[in-house]
Amino acid sequence: MQKVKFQNKQQAAFFSTLRSKVEDYFEENNLSKCGGNKIMIKAIFMLSLYFIPYVTILTAGLSPAVNLILVIVMGFGVAGVGMSVMHDAIHGSFSDNNLFNKIFGGSLYALGGNVYNWEIQHNKLHHTYTNIHEVDEDITGKFLLRLSFQDKKKAIHRFQHIYAFFLYSLMTLSFLWKDFKEIRLFNEMSKTGVVKPFPKKEIFKLLITKTIYIVFIFVIPYFVMDITFGQWFLGFMLMHCTAGLILSTIFQLAHVVEGAHQPLPDDQGTIENAWAVHQLQTTSNFSGSGSWFSWMVGGLDYQIEHHLFPTISHVYYKDLSPIVAETAREFGLEYNSKGNFNNALVSHVRMLKNLGRNESY
Questions:
Q1: CB–CB of 53/78 below 8 Å?
Q2: How far apart are CA 14 and CA 17, in angstroms?
Q3: Coil, strand or helix: which one is 214?
Q4: 361 pLDDT above the threshold of 70
Q5: CA distances from 194 to 4, 8, 92, 178 (A)
Q6: With contact defined as beta carbons under 8 Å apart, do 1 and 265 qualify?
Q7: How far is residue 109's CA from residue 116's CA, in Å, rounded to a whole number?
Q8: Mind listing the pLDDT tens digit for each residue in 143-178?
Q9: Residue 300: strand, helix, or coil
Q10: 101 with 94: CB under 8 angstroms?
Q11: Helical packing angle, 36-59 and 64-81, nearest 10°
Protein backbone atom coordinates (compact mmCIF):
# COMPACT_ATOMS: atom_id res chain seq x y z
CA MET A 1 0.00 0.00 0.00
CA GLN A 2 1.43 3.38 -0.97
CA LYS A 3 0.59 6.97 -0.20
CA VAL A 4 -1.50 8.49 -3.00
CA LYS A 5 -1.33 12.06 -4.28
CA PHE A 6 -3.29 13.97 -6.90
CA GLN A 7 -1.48 16.02 -9.52
CA ASN A 8 -2.80 17.86 -12.55
CA LYS A 9 -2.15 21.59 -12.68
CA GLN A 10 -4.18 21.98 -15.86
CA GLN A 11 -7.33 20.93 -13.99
CA ALA A 12 -6.83 23.20 -10.97
CA ALA A 13 -9.03 25.96 -12.38
CA PHE A 14 -12.13 23.75 -12.26
CA PHE A 15 -12.42 23.64 -8.50
CA SER A 16 -11.33 27.23 -7.90
CA THR A 17 -14.01 28.40 -10.34
CA LEU A 18 -16.64 26.11 -8.83
CA ARG A 19 -15.78 27.09 -5.26
CA SER A 20 -16.08 30.77 -6.18
CA LYS A 21 -19.56 30.19 -7.64
CA VAL A 22 -20.67 28.26 -4.58
CA GLU A 23 -19.37 30.98 -2.26
CA ASP A 24 -21.31 33.55 -4.31
CA TYR A 25 -24.48 31.47 -3.92
CA PHE A 26 -24.23 31.50 -0.12
CA GLU A 27 -23.31 35.19 0.05
CA GLU A 28 -26.05 36.32 -2.34
CA ASN A 29 -28.67 34.34 -0.43
CA ASN A 30 -27.25 35.22 2.99
CA LEU A 31 -27.11 31.57 4.03
CA SER A 32 -25.04 29.59 6.51
CA LYS A 33 -23.43 26.47 5.10
CA CYS A 34 -24.73 24.42 8.00
CA GLY A 35 -28.15 22.82 8.28
CA GLY A 36 -29.78 25.22 10.73
CA ASN A 37 -33.38 24.60 11.83
CA LYS A 38 -34.11 22.33 8.86
CA ILE A 39 -31.59 19.74 9.89
CA MET A 40 -32.40 20.11 13.60
CA ILE A 41 -36.04 19.25 12.91
CA LYS A 42 -34.95 16.31 10.77
CA ALA A 43 -32.57 15.12 13.50
CA ILE A 44 -35.39 15.10 16.06
CA PHE A 45 -37.61 13.16 13.65
CA MET A 46 -34.96 10.54 12.78
CA LEU A 47 -33.85 10.07 16.38
CA SER A 48 -37.50 9.68 17.36
CA LEU A 49 -37.90 6.90 14.78
CA TYR A 50 -35.16 5.07 16.66
CA PHE A 51 -35.78 5.81 20.33
CA ILE A 52 -39.60 6.06 20.59
CA PRO A 53 -40.22 2.52 19.24
CA TYR A 54 -37.47 1.27 21.59
CA VAL A 55 -39.19 2.75 24.66
CA THR A 56 -42.60 1.61 23.41
CA ILE A 57 -41.39 -1.98 23.00
CA LEU A 58 -40.02 -1.96 26.56
CA THR A 59 -43.02 -0.40 28.27
CA ALA A 60 -46.25 -0.89 26.29
CA GLY A 61 -46.65 -4.66 26.58
CA LEU A 62 -47.60 -5.05 22.93
CA SER A 63 -47.89 -8.29 20.98
CA PRO A 64 -44.81 -9.88 19.41
CA ALA A 65 -46.12 -9.06 15.92
CA VAL A 66 -46.48 -5.35 16.75
CA ASN A 67 -43.04 -5.31 18.36
CA LEU A 68 -41.54 -6.73 15.16
CA ILE A 69 -43.11 -3.89 13.21
CA LEU A 70 -41.62 -1.44 15.70
CA VAL A 71 -38.10 -2.88 15.37
CA ILE A 72 -38.40 -2.42 11.59
CA VAL A 73 -39.32 1.22 12.29
CA MET A 74 -36.21 1.38 14.47
CA GLY A 75 -34.24 0.12 11.46
CA PHE A 76 -35.53 3.03 9.40
CA GLY A 77 -34.52 5.27 12.31
CA VAL A 78 -30.99 3.83 12.32
CA ALA A 79 -30.71 4.51 8.59
CA GLY A 80 -32.20 7.99 8.97
CA VAL A 81 -29.85 8.95 11.78
CA GLY A 82 -26.94 7.55 9.78
CA MET A 83 -27.75 9.44 6.59
CA SER A 84 -29.19 12.69 7.95
CA VAL A 85 -27.76 13.30 11.42
CA MET A 86 -24.42 11.74 12.32
CA HIS A 87 -23.18 11.95 8.71
CA ASP A 88 -23.48 15.74 8.54
CA ALA A 89 -22.40 16.18 12.16
CA ILE A 90 -19.14 14.24 11.81
CA HIS A 91 -18.39 16.19 8.63
CA GLY A 92 -18.91 19.36 10.71
CA SER A 93 -21.82 20.59 8.58
CA PHE A 94 -24.68 19.89 10.99
CA SER A 95 -24.26 23.12 12.94
CA ASP A 96 -22.11 26.23 13.25
CA ASN A 97 -21.66 25.18 16.88
CA ASN A 98 -18.95 22.53 17.13
CA LEU A 99 -20.44 21.22 20.38
CA PHE A 100 -23.67 20.40 18.55
CA ASN A 101 -21.66 18.63 15.86
CA LYS A 102 -19.97 16.50 18.52
CA ILE A 103 -23.24 15.72 20.30
CA PHE A 104 -25.18 14.74 17.19
CA GLY A 105 -22.15 13.04 15.65
CA GLY A 106 -22.07 10.95 18.81
CA SER A 107 -25.45 9.51 17.82
CA LEU A 108 -23.35 6.99 15.90
CA TYR A 109 -22.48 5.33 19.23
CA ALA A 110 -26.19 4.68 19.80
CA LEU A 111 -26.30 2.83 16.48
CA GLY A 112 -23.41 0.57 17.47
CA GLY A 113 -20.74 2.44 15.47
CA ASN A 114 -17.66 4.44 16.39
CA VAL A 115 -17.03 8.11 15.64
CA TYR A 116 -13.22 7.94 15.37
CA ASN A 117 -13.32 5.03 12.93
CA TRP A 118 -15.95 6.82 10.82
CA GLU A 119 -13.86 10.01 10.74
CA ILE A 120 -10.83 8.09 9.45
CA GLN A 121 -12.45 5.50 7.20
CA HIS A 122 -15.17 7.72 5.74
CA ASN A 123 -14.17 11.39 6.08
CA LYS A 124 -10.46 10.97 5.43
CA LEU A 125 -9.92 7.83 3.35
CA HIS A 126 -13.14 7.48 1.38
CA HIS A 127 -13.62 11.19 0.71
CA THR A 128 -9.99 11.77 -0.25
CA TYR A 129 -9.16 8.56 -2.12
CA THR A 130 -12.59 7.70 -3.52
CA ASN A 131 -12.71 4.41 -5.48
CA ILE A 132 -8.95 3.83 -5.21
CA HIS A 133 -8.16 0.20 -4.48
CA GLU A 134 -6.73 -0.62 -1.03
CA VAL A 135 -7.04 2.96 0.23
CA ASP A 136 -10.81 3.31 -0.06
CA GLU A 137 -12.14 0.53 2.16
CA ASP A 138 -15.65 1.00 0.76
CA ILE A 139 -14.73 -0.92 -2.40
CA THR A 140 -11.79 -3.04 -1.22
CA GLY A 141 -11.64 -6.55 0.22
CA LYS A 142 -15.33 -7.15 0.86
CA PHE A 143 -16.49 -10.57 2.04
CA LEU A 144 -17.78 -12.54 -1.00
CA LEU A 145 -18.08 -9.29 -2.96
CA ARG A 146 -15.89 -7.86 -5.70
CA LEU A 147 -16.52 -4.12 -5.84
CA SER A 148 -13.10 -3.21 -7.22
CA PHE A 149 -11.63 -4.43 -10.49
CA GLN A 150 -8.29 -4.68 -8.68
CA ASP A 151 -9.65 -7.27 -6.22
CA LYS A 152 -9.04 -10.91 -7.16
CA LYS A 153 -11.97 -12.36 -9.10
CA LYS A 154 -13.39 -15.61 -7.72
CA ALA A 155 -15.89 -18.01 -9.27
CA ILE A 156 -18.61 -17.10 -6.76
CA HIS A 157 -18.47 -13.45 -7.83
CA ARG A 158 -20.39 -14.40 -10.98
CA PHE A 159 -23.46 -14.58 -8.76
CA GLN A 160 -22.80 -11.55 -6.58
CA HIS A 161 -25.57 -9.51 -8.19
CA ILE A 162 -27.96 -12.10 -6.73
CA TYR A 163 -26.68 -12.27 -3.15
CA ALA A 164 -25.10 -8.80 -2.76
CA PHE A 165 -28.12 -7.14 -1.23
CA PHE A 166 -28.32 -9.77 1.49
CA LEU A 167 -24.71 -8.95 2.43
CA TYR A 168 -25.53 -5.24 2.26
CA SER A 169 -28.18 -5.79 4.92
CA LEU A 170 -25.43 -6.80 7.37
CA MET A 171 -23.64 -3.43 7.14
CA THR A 172 -24.60 -1.93 10.51
CA LEU A 173 -24.38 -5.34 12.18
CA SER A 174 -20.74 -5.47 11.11
CA PHE A 175 -20.02 -2.44 13.31
CA LEU A 176 -19.89 -4.83 16.26
CA TRP A 177 -16.62 -6.41 15.06
CA LYS A 178 -15.40 -4.28 12.17
CA ASP A 179 -14.55 -1.33 14.41
CA PHE A 180 -12.09 -3.56 16.29
CA LYS A 181 -10.58 -4.80 13.03
CA GLU A 182 -9.84 -1.20 12.05
CA ILE A 183 -7.27 -0.95 14.87
CA ARG A 184 -4.90 -3.29 13.05
CA LEU A 185 -5.76 -1.84 9.63
CA PHE A 186 -5.09 1.77 10.62
CA ASN A 187 -1.85 0.80 12.36
CA GLU A 188 -0.73 -0.94 9.16
CA MET A 189 -1.73 2.01 6.99
CA SER A 190 0.12 4.41 9.31
CA LYS A 191 3.42 2.98 8.06
CA THR A 192 2.89 4.81 4.77
CA GLY A 193 1.74 8.02 6.47
CA VAL A 194 -1.79 7.82 5.06
CA VAL A 195 -3.27 7.82 8.58
CA LYS A 196 -1.96 7.98 12.14
CA PRO A 197 -1.65 4.89 14.36
CA PHE A 198 -4.85 4.05 16.26
CA PRO A 199 -4.70 6.12 19.50
CA LYS A 200 -4.81 4.18 22.78
CA LYS A 201 -7.44 6.53 24.20
CA GLU A 202 -9.69 5.69 21.26
CA ILE A 203 -9.31 1.96 21.96
CA PHE A 204 -10.55 2.60 25.50
CA LYS A 205 -13.45 4.69 24.17
CA LEU A 206 -14.24 1.95 21.67
CA LEU A 207 -14.52 -0.66 24.45
CA ILE A 208 -16.68 1.58 26.65
CA THR A 209 -19.11 2.63 23.92
CA LYS A 210 -19.51 -0.92 22.60
CA THR A 211 -20.29 -2.12 26.12
CA ILE A 212 -22.90 0.62 26.56
CA TYR A 213 -24.46 -0.31 23.21
CA ILE A 214 -24.71 -3.98 24.20
CA VAL A 215 -26.41 -2.99 27.45
CA PHE A 216 -28.81 -0.73 25.54
CA ILE A 217 -29.67 -3.10 22.72
CA PHE A 218 -29.49 -6.48 24.50
CA VAL A 219 -29.22 -6.45 28.29
CA ILE A 220 -32.07 -4.00 29.00
CA PRO A 221 -34.63 -5.46 26.52
CA TYR A 222 -33.77 -9.06 27.39
CA PHE A 223 -34.11 -8.65 31.15
CA VAL A 224 -36.93 -6.08 31.22
CA MET A 225 -39.19 -7.96 28.81
CA ASP A 226 -40.52 -11.48 29.04
CA ILE A 227 -38.89 -12.74 25.84
CA THR A 228 -36.67 -15.59 24.77
CA PHE A 229 -33.22 -15.06 23.31
CA GLY A 230 -34.59 -16.18 19.95
CA GLN A 231 -37.28 -13.48 20.03
CA TRP A 232 -34.70 -10.83 20.94
CA PHE A 233 -32.34 -12.05 18.21
CA LEU A 234 -35.07 -11.92 15.57
CA GLY A 235 -35.90 -8.32 16.48
CA PHE A 236 -32.22 -7.36 16.61
CA MET A 237 -31.57 -8.82 13.17
CA LEU A 238 -34.69 -7.26 11.64
CA MET A 239 -33.64 -3.82 12.87
CA HIS A 240 -30.06 -4.10 11.63
CA CYS A 241 -30.94 -5.75 8.31
CA THR A 242 -33.48 -3.01 7.56
CA ALA A 243 -30.94 -0.30 8.35
CA GLY A 244 -28.04 -2.03 6.63
CA LEU A 245 -29.94 -2.65 3.40
CA ILE A 246 -31.01 1.00 3.17
CA LEU A 247 -27.62 2.49 4.06
CA SER A 248 -25.50 0.16 1.93
CA THR A 249 -27.70 0.51 -1.12
CA ILE A 250 -27.70 4.31 -0.93
CA PHE A 251 -23.91 4.43 -0.55
CA GLN A 252 -23.22 1.86 -3.30
CA LEU A 253 -25.32 3.74 -5.86
CA ALA A 254 -22.90 6.66 -5.60
CA HIS A 255 -19.68 4.86 -6.54
CA VAL A 256 -20.27 1.34 -7.85
CA VAL A 257 -22.25 2.24 -10.95
CA GLU A 258 -21.46 2.59 -14.63
CA GLY A 259 -19.38 5.67 -15.37
CA ALA A 260 -17.85 5.87 -11.89
CA HIS A 261 -14.12 5.38 -12.46
CA GLN A 262 -11.75 3.24 -10.41
CA PRO A 263 -8.38 4.85 -11.22
CA LEU A 264 -5.03 3.39 -10.26
CA PRO A 265 -2.07 5.50 -9.11
CA ASP A 266 1.18 5.18 -11.06
CA ASP A 267 4.41 3.74 -9.63
CA GLN A 268 5.02 6.99 -7.74
CA GLY A 269 1.55 6.89 -6.19
CA THR A 270 0.23 9.72 -8.38
CA ILE A 271 -3.31 9.99 -9.73
CA GLU A 272 -3.22 12.05 -12.92
CA ASN A 273 -6.18 14.15 -11.89
CA ALA A 274 -6.78 17.11 -9.64
CA TRP A 275 -8.60 16.03 -6.46
CA ALA A 276 -11.89 17.71 -7.42
CA VAL A 277 -11.89 16.16 -10.90
CA HIS A 278 -11.17 12.80 -9.30
CA GLN A 279 -14.27 13.23 -7.10
CA LEU A 280 -16.34 14.13 -10.15
CA GLN A 281 -15.16 11.09 -12.10
CA THR A 282 -15.58 8.54 -9.29
CA THR A 283 -19.00 9.64 -8.06
CA SER A 284 -22.52 9.58 -9.44
CA ASN A 285 -25.83 11.22 -8.53
CA PHE A 286 -29.21 9.51 -8.60
CA SER A 287 -31.34 12.54 -7.84
CA GLY A 288 -34.71 12.91 -9.51
CA SER A 289 -36.81 10.46 -7.50
CA GLY A 290 -38.57 13.29 -5.66
CA SER A 291 -37.95 15.73 -2.83
CA TRP A 292 -39.42 13.38 -0.20
CA PHE A 293 -37.00 10.62 -1.20
CA SER A 294 -34.09 13.07 -1.15
CA TRP A 295 -35.15 14.28 2.30
CA MET A 296 -35.29 10.73 3.63
CA VAL A 297 -31.82 9.76 2.34
CA GLY A 298 -30.12 12.87 3.69
CA GLY A 299 -29.50 14.43 0.29
CA LEU A 300 -27.16 11.56 -0.58
CA ASP A 301 -28.80 11.24 -3.98
CA TYR A 302 -26.59 14.29 -4.67
CA GLN A 303 -23.32 12.54 -3.90
CA ILE A 304 -21.28 14.59 -6.37
CA GLU A 305 -22.08 17.76 -4.45
CA HIS A 306 -21.40 15.98 -1.18
CA HIS A 307 -17.98 14.76 -2.28
CA LEU A 308 -16.94 18.15 -3.60
CA PHE A 309 -18.30 20.04 -0.58
CA PRO A 310 -18.54 17.63 2.37
CA THR A 311 -18.51 20.47 4.94
CA ILE A 312 -21.68 21.99 3.46
CA SER A 313 -24.94 20.58 4.83
CA HIS A 314 -26.92 18.24 2.61
CA VAL A 315 -29.95 20.55 2.76
CA TYR A 316 -28.27 22.68 0.05
CA TYR A 317 -27.14 19.96 -2.36
CA LYS A 318 -30.19 20.21 -4.61
CA ASP A 319 -29.58 23.96 -5.07
CA LEU A 320 -25.85 23.46 -5.66
CA SER A 321 -26.37 20.71 -8.22
CA PRO A 322 -27.09 23.01 -11.24
CA ILE A 323 -24.03 25.09 -10.35
CA VAL A 324 -21.78 22.02 -10.26
CA ALA A 325 -23.25 20.55 -13.47
CA GLU A 326 -22.90 23.83 -15.36
CA THR A 327 -19.29 24.33 -14.23
CA ALA A 328 -18.41 20.75 -15.18
CA ARG A 329 -19.76 21.38 -18.68
CA GLU A 330 -17.73 24.60 -18.93
CA PHE A 331 -14.56 22.58 -18.34
CA GLY A 332 -15.56 19.69 -20.59
CA LEU A 333 -16.04 17.30 -17.65
CA GLU A 334 -18.75 14.67 -17.33
CA TYR A 335 -21.40 15.14 -14.64
CA ASN A 336 -22.50 11.56 -13.99
CA SER A 337 -26.16 11.50 -12.99
CA LYS A 338 -28.43 8.48 -13.36
CA GLY A 339 -31.62 10.54 -13.17
CA ASN A 340 -33.36 8.63 -10.38
CA PHE A 341 -33.02 5.80 -7.86
CA ASN A 342 -34.36 3.09 -10.18
CA ASN A 343 -31.89 3.91 -12.96
CA ALA A 344 -29.01 3.93 -10.48
CA LEU A 345 -30.11 0.61 -8.98
CA VAL A 346 -30.18 -1.03 -12.43
CA SER A 347 -26.76 0.46 -13.21
CA HIS A 348 -25.37 -0.88 -9.92
CA VAL A 349 -26.64 -4.39 -10.63
CA ARG A 350 -25.03 -4.26 -14.08
CA MET A 351 -21.77 -3.18 -12.45
CA LEU A 352 -21.96 -6.08 -9.99
CA LYS A 353 -22.34 -8.42 -12.99
CA ASN A 354 -19.38 -6.79 -14.78
CA LEU A 355 -17.23 -6.97 -11.67
CA GLY A 356 -18.17 -10.60 -11.15
CA ARG A 357 -17.40 -11.69 -14.71
CA ASN A 358 -14.66 -9.43 -16.08
CA GLU A 359 -11.11 -8.62 -15.07
CA SER A 360 -11.50 -4.99 -16.07
CA TYR A 361 -14.22 -2.54 -17.07
A1: no
A2: 5
A3: helix
A4: no
A5: 8, 20, 21, 20
A6: no
A7: 10
A8: 999 999 999 999 999 999 999 999 999 999 988 889
A9: coil
A10: yes
A11: 160
